[in-house]
Give the backbone structure.
Amino acid sequence: MPLLTMRNIDKSFFGKFANQKVNLDVEAGEVHALLGENGAGKTTLMNILYGIYTKDAGEIYYDGQPVEFRSPKEAIAHKIGMVHQHFMLVPTLTVSQNITLGLREKGYPCSNRKQLNQKITQISSQYGLAIDPDAKVNTLSVGEQQRVEIMKLLYRDARLLILDEPTAVLTPQETKNFFRVLKKLREDGRSVILITHHIPEVMDIADQVTVLRDTRSIITAPITELTEEKLSEYMIGRQLKPIERPMDTAREGTGLEVRELKMIRKGVARLNGISFCIAPGEILGIAGVDGNGQKELVEAIMGIGKTPGGSVLLYGEEIKNLPIRSRIRRGLGYISDDRQQDELLMDMNLAENMLLKMYEDKTMNRHGIIHKKSLYAKTQAAIENYDIKTYSLEIPIRLLSGGNQQKLVLARELAGEPRALVVSQPTRGLDIGASEFIREQLLAGKKNGCSILLISADLEEILALSDRIAVIHGGRIMGIVPNTGEVDMTAVGLMMAGRDSMAEREEGEDADE
Amino acid sequence: MTEILAVITTYLAASLRMATPLTLAGLGESCSEKSGVINIGLEAIMLSGSFCGFIVTFWTSNLFLGILAGIAGGILVSMLHAVLSIKCCADQNMIGLALNFLFLGLTSFLFLKAFGQTTVLPTCDTVNVIRIPLLSEIPVLGPVLFTQNIFVYIMFIAIGVFWFVFYKTDWGIQLTAVGEHPRAADTAGLNVFGIRYGACLINGIFGGMAGAYITLSQLGFFMENVTAGKGYMALVAVILGRRNPIGVLLAAMLIGFADALQFNLQTMGIAVPSQAFSMMPYVAAVIVLLFSVNHSSNPSALGIPYQRNKR
Amino acid sequence: MNSKWRSVLSFAGVGAACVGISAIFIILTGGNALRAFAGFFQGIVGSAYNLAEVLVKATPLILAGLGVSVAFKSGFTNIGAEGQLYMGAIASTFIAMYLPGLPAVVMIPLCMAGAFILGGLWAFIPGVLKAKFGISEVINTIMFNYIAINLLGVLVQTVLKDPNGYFPMSPTLPDASALPVLVRSTRLHAGIFIAIAGAVLIYLLIYKTTAGFRMRAVGVNRRACSCAGISAGRNLMLSALISGGMAGIAGFSEVAGLHHKLLEGISPDYGYLAIIVALLGRKHPVGVVAAAVGIAALQVGSLSMQRTANVPSSIASIIMGTLVVLILARKTIFRKLLGKEEGI
Amino acid sequence: GCGSEQTAKEGSAGDGKGDAGKSDGLKVALILSGPANDQGWNATALEGLKKAEDEFGITSAYMENVDIADTEAAYRDYAAQGFDLIVGHGFQFGEPAAKVGKEFPDQYFMATESNSQGDNMASYVMSCEEGAYLMGMLCAGMTKTNTIGVVGGFEQPSITKELEAFKIAAKEVNPDVKVLEIYINSFVDASLGKEAAMSMIDQGADVLYHVANQAGTGVITAAQEKGLLCCGNSYDQNSIAPDSVMCSTVYNMPLVITTAVQQVMDHKFEGGVFYLGMADGVVDIAPFHDFEDKIPKELMDQVLAKKDAIISGEFEVPRIESVTK
Ligand SMILES: Nc1ncnc2c1ncn2[C@@H]1O[C@H](COP(=O)(O)OP(=O)(O)OP(=O)(O)O)[C@@H](O)[C@H]1O
Ligand SMILES: Nc1ncnc2c1ncn2[C@@H]1O[C@H](COP(=O)(O)OP(=O)(O)OP(=O)(O)O)[C@@H](O)[C@H]1O
Ligand SMILES: [Mg+2]
Ligand SMILES: [Mg+2]
């Protein structure tokens, strides 16, 4: 008897289906991968299971019993836990407070924090999840936040763990570690529903796979009966084409250049003199573990927040002291990794979100008046070209699925035909079809002579797109290697861990991490 | 020396008298706002508390029942606000303003119904001062802090309790979570709606008590619009005090102090229109606020209804 | 039945419930409910004068309501329309009193500009404090209300006092500063045109221009705006300025169109009603105009009801409060009728 | 205006007010700026209206809490409804009354405390300062600390003239007395009134007076709480605090209204500004109740003698309408 059975689940929003006759069976002690394109309805299905949404029709059986959770509280009571696509942590509380939130431990409501912290540390070391219970969540990197989310489930001793795109924000190392945890969970007899867009991960860890396509579940099969090719065909209805990066190496001139960038934030040096130069038509990939200065680097180039030391040059012009708007006017584009915070007006519609970066465009703006027709035309074009799943361009972007929101951001930035582009995690959360498309767009931009700084936690992506690869660690560039096809991955890995690949080794402070 | 002490004592006492209703109401409002529900209808809560407290005391001659009735009156308004904001997901500013209008009319109407058109002011007993032995002998503080009535003692105890609950217990953490990130709280298994209703209930209790203080301690009678804008001033105390119980008390004391000061200045006979003095408490609030640069941190979800089924 | 009709029906339900509740209160006072309601409607549409009165009251509500909407759009919670209205009234009185010789074509625009600037300043200061120092605008705007009201009190006893009178009020202002009356033997003045023009301008500004877009965007996500090079602070301050300016023009319109002098108590809570107007009108100029006329009609009707049926004035507050509460609860009360509300 | 003439005729056609003395159908309306149920300023006016109703059988109507912006409309609407006499209670009603009066020449308009007038519009000003003068004497005579206090509502002539008379009277009885005065800028905030009184008590005042309507009731509460003496205003306020309220100024608003109604009935209503004081029975002081024995005989005689002098016209209380400090 399966642990969980979902039968013929229907759910619609605004009269449009998000789930239609969806079936899902999860056995005890298995890792069950739930796959599907952006907007296929994966998150919706899980939200129904977890009691956040109410289903329109269908049945759910848990442990053989018919159930209907009206709130997450009830789901939790049945030892179901969920890590959401967008983290559900209270930023102003500490790690430990977040983990124990909602629980009634001994001594409640005056529970002994020390004891709770001990228990947390014990569980976290058991699974190899390093966290500091007393750190405020708003000081944590995304990877650390992910660990807190998982700890929340482990602390609650969940039997069924729903993980909605947990690896999207993790570095390869973190992912590896994370999978170790998953395997341990499976050994403990727990079940995991894993939503991901990374097919290799699925092949690596899943026991069973269910694929959603256009709101319906189209197949459930054991992993042993599937191949990567077959899976991608189920998901997007076709084979992926391998990306071809033009290998023209000799490039002239300087597009985006930084020299000796330095930044100190809250007394800690976040950037320690970073220099590099990207030629027009070149992609420089930045590899590195999250939290090593990537965010600061990007913000320094874009002019968000504090002015850094050193200099930022755009086609030879110093732009370090220019306001953001002037940089945008000079053709500097930006795609942030935190799209909901940095890029989107969640309560505004798609067209208005398009307008956010291009309201100064001559076609959009006539003497301060918005030119609605061309705005709508441009938005419609973006929707079509990027295959954004939406009912209309006049609905709030909040209603789109995570992947589709990201597509609009990309469409907007690339539509401006930037001379230089800073891209952070461009395909995070995108399905394989969309990722492929985005990568093609980036390469097309490069072909048009755009200097692109690509920051990605996904080494595969960096390898696939970059002309040169720089490794960042502790706010320093550890080394830059040309991406000739035979990159020494061990050397890159070493640099990411803070060790210089070449003879001169960095001592002390960096190594002991 | 003794003269200076006497001046300090009188100012302290005057500030505390005026601060008491603002603090009581402010404590409840802090709780409500921490949970994400902002109630501009504090004025209505207080007015309802004043009215119910008075009328029950008038009828039963029992102050204890009167205070309970005042609390009930406050709860009635706060729960109306809670249902409209939590269940109906209506705009909280608008609910508050509407309730202020509604209860200004309702209390005046019911008062008229109860006593008719009259030139005789119906009055009731007021609460007695309870002198706490020994403590009340302390110079300066003794007469101010320990020669007070039940409302003031309740206020002091409540400040301590609120402070402890906010900052030292799981309830405080839950309150913060619900106000900062209700969806996170919900997915962690907290009953967001329940906690918000609870916080609103507490707001009603203390707001009602603040209202009852006006009729049952300060005045001994009720009249139309007897709160005269104190609900708004309590809101000011809440923001000025950053929802910290002690901060709320200090902010309310400051407003009270400014009033005491303006009265004293007026009696000095300076030839300036009196409105110039009357605006002092408000100017003082603005000036103090200037020192809170970059420290005002509202709960992120303040005023935003939580809808589970919505993105 | 389509959703539009259901919605109309639910509003009818709200109206009926409101009428029912008011009837109970009227009967409780011993009044005649039918006569009261007749008085209510007669007070609104009974004569040209009454209709004009509705518009007279709607004028400041539209102007101040527009102001509040603009502020709310950019995330500036402006509770201070009352004070900004007072400051507008003060400014236009100042100009009209101290520059009495000007012809109307100069005088009226000048008074309006003065009212806009001083009213705007009264919101701009809290705006700067919020944008530059992160200080809560809610308190500041409330405090600025009280300060403005007291300031007016001081002024009408000093520099703006009628030198020939002993009441705390300004002298009657020169004719050149008065807005023309539109319909003879009513009080309907040209302020209503200013209000309507204001609504059109604000609509164009907010929804059709990039400046308006920026202000709206700042109200939705400040961080995303700064990442897109839109200064959150500057747009916030701009919207505060416009917001206060509109409320200031409401003050101008009351002085120039109605009272022709400055005196204490010039606004019967128009500034607070404007918040209700803005929110009921969903911060949209068309909605604001409709809500303002509605609230004005409600008030004028209630006053007339008082006169014809001798009910106490508290009934007016009760009706007003009840109506708004019912409108807020409409979707929940009529959930069955409305069907599953979109997105909920 | 031409539009309104017709309605005015209509209004007066049916009520047969041509017959002198008869009141059948005479309609009188009262407009109040605050709540009718304020146990003070407005309540006494309404009492007057009711009294006129009882005495003359007139039809009456009233409106409370009328804002300045709505005043003109209120006068006009009552006029259009055919009311024969429309009374506004407060200085701010003067100008609208005069203005609307011009459009309804067959009906009568009145305002209290104002200085406007017209053919069919009169202002009746109560000489409240005469009462306040006596209270000033009383308070100054009773103080033991040589400090007394007075709380005013708003700085407007009808209030100021009382405070000023109070101060002059106090100095007359007791040249060394210190008179503290506070305007609280509210007629409704009783807690503020109480705090103002408390502040004066803290400064040594032991006898208090108020001219702040509802808000002033707080002054009485303060005196009562501290076991001190005070004087009331508007009506006999002794019942609020029998141990504290020695005496009160009393305005006989009912008499003002009945006088006006009588004049309308007798076709004697005239435009103008009329001052009504103690001699007319419009201003008076309340009985001393329990204080009859507690007030020193000498002082009592002095006060009563002054009252007689005022009534006989021997003594005229100065009317000072702007604040002197
Ligand atoms: N609360 C909601 N209101 C309206 N539409 C919604 C809501 N939730 C989901 N949808 C719609 O349902 C569809 C499925 O969304 P869902 O988030 O389940 O997709 P997903 O498979 O998780 O996609 P992704 O991989 O991009 O996260 C989308 O088209 C989305 O716009
Ligand atoms: N929409 C808003 N909602 C809430 N607070 C806001 C909003 N807009 C501005 N603020 C306030 O403005 C302050 C400063 O904002 P910000 O730094 O973005 O302004 P700025 O325009 O970039 O400033 P400058 O022009 O000096 O660069 C913040 O601390 C915040 O309190
Ligand atoms: Mg999803
Ligand atoms: Mg800035």
